[in-house]
């Protein structure tokens, strides 16, 4: 459902002298010319969200209407190449975004790169975003459908990738740097909303902008840290943690891994919860130094009684066993961490 903004109250972003810096990130759907950005920009302006600055190392490419055309949409780029070649950190350093809107992976799907690799690239990019800005807000699209005449299998590959994105986002999101999924797939027609089965036409641009708008407006309304509406530095005393996965050993049909949890806030924690989404269809069946629950392929591990309290900068960990026919080779997992503040 597309929500219409409330007209009764002007957004907090409107009166601020310090705009929220928003990076549109992706490939040609975002940048060449990516006219949904022009539609979105003008809708933001017309509804009172004037304190927004689109940023990127690339400039506007037409679109026939005035707009802030800065973007990071590189035509032909694969998200896996962007991650493997570490292309994003320099772009972040040059533009310093507060929010990233990412529609990325179309060229990877076309190249038959499996969802596990694409999602691993997503994870690396989010880590790089947080290294640039620990309070980064990330909007990640379930990408628009594609049905090019030269790739009969592409339509189903998009479905397969999009089905995995919500669980990935849930495992990657943190209280300090949330990851929000924006459904760009549902209701989008390659027959009427693209001119070639891949790239949006004017109708497609309108649809894409309409899906980004409520998600971005919600962030602007709540106040992006460091930007308009921010009541202060949420990093001061707000509970936050990170989780990292390491494979210890593997065998035919399974592997052993360990997860390290680190308190990244300036205040002590009373506990933590980690989500684990193993790659390749594996599933977590056993943990130690934590309590395991599972649902829909996602394992949730809460701290044990003796390893939940963490001082700032301190770490704890737990071990796990994962079973699955695809779990051999180089095991990996997407992990996310949620912290609980210590009570006085």
UniProtKB/TrEMBL annotation:
<protein>
    <submittedName>
        <fullName>Cellulose binding domain-containing protein</fullName>
    </submittedName>
</protein>
<feature type="domain" description="CBM2">
    <location>
        <begin position="234"/>
        <end position="340"/>
    </location>
</feature>
<dbReference type="InterPro" id="IPR008965">
    <property type="entry name" value="CBM2/CBM3_carb-bd_dom_sf"/>
</dbReference>
<dbReference type="InterPro" id="IPR001919">
    <property type="entry name" value="CBD2"/>
</dbReference>
<keyword id="KW-0119">Carbohydrate metabolism</keyword>
<dbReference type="InterPro" id="IPR012291">
    <property type="entry name" value="CBM2_carb-bd_dom_sf"/>
</dbReference>
<dbReference type="InterPro" id="IPR051532">
    <property type="entry name" value="Ester_Hydrolysis_Enzymes"/>
</dbReference>
<keyword id="KW-0732">Signal</keyword>
<dbReference type="Pfam" id="PF13472">
    <property type="entry name" value="Lipase_GDSL_2"/>
</dbReference>
<keyword id="KW-0624">Polysaccharide degradation</keyword>
<dbReference type="InterPro" id="IPR013830">
    <property type="entry name" value="SGNH_hydro"/>
</dbReference>
<dbReference type="InterPro" id="IPR036514">
    <property type="entry name" value="SGNH_hydro_sf"/>
</dbReference>
<dbReference type="Pfam" id="PF00553">
    <property type="entry name" value="CBM_2"/>
</dbReference>
């Amino acid at each position: 459902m597309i929500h219409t903004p409330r007209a009764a109250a002007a957004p907090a972003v409107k009166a601020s002298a310090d705009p929220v810096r928003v990076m549109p990130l992706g490939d040609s759907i975002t940048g060449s010319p990516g006219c949904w950005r022009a539609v979105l920009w003008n809708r933001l302006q017309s509804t009172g969200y004037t304190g927004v600055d689109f940023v990127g190392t690339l400039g506007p490419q037409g679109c026939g209407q005035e707009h802030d055309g800065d973007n990071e949409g590189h035509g032909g780029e694969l998200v896996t190449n962007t991650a493997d070649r570490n292309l994003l950190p320099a772009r972040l350093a040059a533009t310093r975004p507060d929010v990233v809107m990412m529609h990325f992976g179309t060229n990877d799907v076309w190249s038959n790169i499996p969802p596990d690799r694409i999602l691993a690239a997503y994870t690396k990019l989010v880590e790089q975003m947080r290294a640039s800005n620990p309070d980064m807000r990330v909007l990640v699209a379930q990408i628009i459908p594609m049905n090019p005449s030269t790739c009969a299998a592409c339509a189903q590959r998009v479905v397969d990738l999009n089905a995995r994105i919500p669980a990935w986002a849930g495992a990657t999101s943190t209280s300090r740097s949330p990851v929000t999924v924006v459904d760009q797939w549902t209701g989008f027609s390659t027959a009427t909303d693209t001119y070639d089965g891949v790239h949006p036409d004017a109708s497609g641009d309108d649809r894409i902008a309409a899906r980004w708008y409520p998600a971005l407006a919600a962030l602007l309304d709540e106040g992006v840290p460091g930007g308009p509406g921010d009541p202060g530095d949420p990093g001061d005393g707000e509970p936050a943690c990170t989780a990292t996965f390491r494979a210890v050993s593997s065998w035919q049909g399974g592997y052993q891994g360990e997860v390290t949890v680190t308190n990244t806030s300036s205040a002590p924690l009373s506990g933590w919860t980690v989500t684990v989404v193993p790659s390749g269809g594996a599933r977590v069946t056993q943990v130690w130094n934590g309590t395991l629950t599972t649902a829909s392929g996602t394992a949730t591990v809460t701290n044990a009684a003796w390893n939940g309290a963490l001082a700032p900068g301190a770490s704890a960990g737990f071990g796990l066993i994962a079973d699955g026919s695809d779990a051999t080779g180089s095991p990996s997992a997407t992990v996310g961490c949620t912290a609980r503040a210590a009570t006085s």
